[in-house]
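ugh ok fine here u go
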Amino acid sequence: MAAPVYEKKALTKKSENIADWYHDVVLRAGLAEYADVKGCMIIKPHGYALWEHVQSVLDAEFKADGVRNVYFPLFIPMHLLQKEQEHVAGFSPELAVVTHAGGEELAEPLAIRPTSETIMYATFANWVQSWRDLPLKTNQWCNVVRWEKRTYPFLRTSEFLWQEGHTVHADEADAMDMVLRALDWYRAFYEEEFAISPYVGLKSAGEKFAGAERTYSVELVLPDGKALQAATSHYLGTHFASVFGVNYLDAQGASQVAHQTSWGLSTRSIGGLVLVHGDDSGLVLPPRAAPEQVVVLAVGSKSSDNAHVQSEAANIADELKHAGIRAVVDTDLLHSLGYRINEHELRGVPVRLEVGARELADGKITAVRRDTLTKSSVNRSDIVTDVQTLLSDIQSSLLERSEKLKRELTKEAATWEEFTAIMEHGKAFIRAPWCERPECEADIKAETKATPRVLELDRIDEHIETVCVKCGEPAHRRWLFAQSY
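structure:
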């Protein structure tokens, strides 16, 4: 009796249900799968390779600027976490706390790291003594735990991976220079590696990091009009330094309170990548970030001798790899051609080269680009240069597409009627004048679920004479609002 054949369920269409589509793609493209612990995920090799790319690019930027990697404990004594009250209040609902270990109740509970300011700064007080110790620039690649009630793979999980930079400076000017430099690293990474055009700017008082004086953010515009906070950089002022005793002697021998920063980007970035570029066939990965940039597909039939085709496919892959292109070869002729094509499209491989006996006889190779699914014919003799050109064009085209999406999903509103109409008839980013009062921010969120995402960097010094879109009080700057993930 023949084994039963099960038909694989088609992907949910992105245009019909982006949430279900996202879950389908993350699981079926092999990025991640659910763990036995509620709210946690297992990052699979294809997904972890994307995170390794994030690490390699950003870590090089950090080190070139003099930032050094460190590692601090996962467990934070509660007395340290509670020293900065605004900070602990901001994280209390998400804390996971260890109360028993080694078969005994602990004398002091231990918080599982939600972020590392408190445990690191207690140590920084010992590391920093003199102006000669400044600036102190550190970064940590690690996991953190924030016990989320609603979780989505990569976007919001109870445990996730990130990097957190922590620096100490002599004054506000030097600290702010660090804050904005880190913010620019993140902006450049999204544009140049992930081919995503973000909004970058200042967060509102209600949206800033707990304990920070100012928070800056990178916000992604997603295809459903919602926002994804994709990286943050915080000017902490002297708040934490005053609490933890991070002081230094200046050149004149006087004691001064240090100024501090923290900044981070997490595996949430991968979720943003999936949402921005993916389509109804699965992932669409920008070439610079793709673990596999090219798949060389041997095309043949089970009934014919395919040794020459398989050999040439392997030769082409080797030539591409020798030129620094991340190429793989697929010589599996046991599955149908359609199945193999669908699998590589699902995984988002930027370029597919189809190599068959006819193509080899003509000296031509069929190239298919993943972003548009269009085919072209390239000369076998020019395969390396043609593929390099194709990869560069795909990278540029994806960024252009992201910029276009951002423009199309950003609306202007001068009145509350315009604001609510936009929110009711399709989500979008809304640029509108706002009074910047917390009470007004709360009212806008209660009525529309929209929050101020950022005040764009080039609008921070803006001064207009108008009225708030919600309350009618004087407003001098236009903020971007959106619902967020």
